[in-house]
Amino acid sequence: MRTEQNLTRLDRVFARLDREPERPAHIDVPKMSRHRVALLVATLAFYLAIVWLVVVTSWLVRFDWQVMFFRPYQQWPEIHAFLDYYVVLGQRGPTAVMVAAWLGWRSWRQHTLRPLLTLGASLLLLNITVGAAKLGMGRLGPHYATTIGSNEMGLGGDIFPSGHTANAVVTWGILAYLASTPRARRWLSAVSAVVSLGVGLTTVYLGTHWLSDVVLGWAAGLLVLLALPWCEPLIARAEVSIFALRDRLRERRSGTFPVPAAPVAVPVSVAAGAAASSQDEAAAPRGTATAARPPRAPVYLAPGPHTTRSERTPVTPAGSRRPPHADRLPRGATTPTARPLTGG
Predict the structure, then answer these.
(1) Percent helix, strand and coil across the chain, each rounded to 5?
(2) 26 in helix, strand or coil?
(3) Per-residue pLDDT reduced to its tens digit, 267-320
(4) What is the dihedral of CA 297, 302, 306, 308, to 10 degrees?
(5) How far is 21 from 39, CA to CA, in rounded Å?
(6) For FRET with 292, which of 42, 259, 269, 327 sits at 20 to 30 Å CA-CA?
(7) Buried b (16+ CB within 10 A) or exposed e, 132-147
């Protein structure tokens, strides 16, 4: 009776890790669909609305001041130590290293640079857009506010929008963007949303950001993720160029030290044989098809594969090693009858 082995989930994971790296047959690249374009336009409108509400010092700014005076870090001091570590999930350096390590492993397993190039493109877009907005609006944070009730805009700050929140949205959201199955994409989207929401609220708790900074940071990070399909053709061309450069470097490295061919002197016998063959071809009548002869190995080269001296079979030369003599007869030959001498 044959029994089948029941593999646990951990066994299946290790079995998958033991497989050879292979490029997937189909990579689902997100496209700029109408739904995505509509969501991008709506997010951009929301982004501009938040900026306008802060610029005109509306009810949103007054709510920012109310939250700041509430001082959440004094209301719930028991979670302060935990949130000091949790907010690291929004810092660009540590999160980029963690996500890049995972995507680098995926790139090696799938023989494609798309995960790493997509991460690089998203971080580049994030730094350009969020950095320009921070420097352009120059808003001060709650700890450096000067006038109660003001929007603190144009005072040389770099707090609006929240970089921690936008970075959490992009860094963890890129995992959902690069997911290979719809189910994994849904789960990773939910996890990235929870992480980015927690990071944003943690900055408000610690008093490093206004609430409007966090809301604008969510919108800024979502805009980067929604605009990524426009970068896919550029990412594909960059991957092809990098692989072509790698192939050229490999060819150049393999041909760095070529082995020069040693000149070989042609023996006289070979030259004579070549001359004889040319004379035979010239003597053949015209119109006669000459049979194709198999190429012969040169006389000065061994006809077969080279073997060491110990592996060669000793060959005993046929016949005698003595030099021939005219007055001697070979062995086995009959002696001729001597003619009688006749007197003359």
Answers:
(1) 60, 0, 40
(2) coil
(3) 444 444 544 555 555 455 554 444 445 555 444 444 444 444 444 445 444 555
(4) 180
(5) 37
(6) 269
(7) ebbeebebbbbeebee
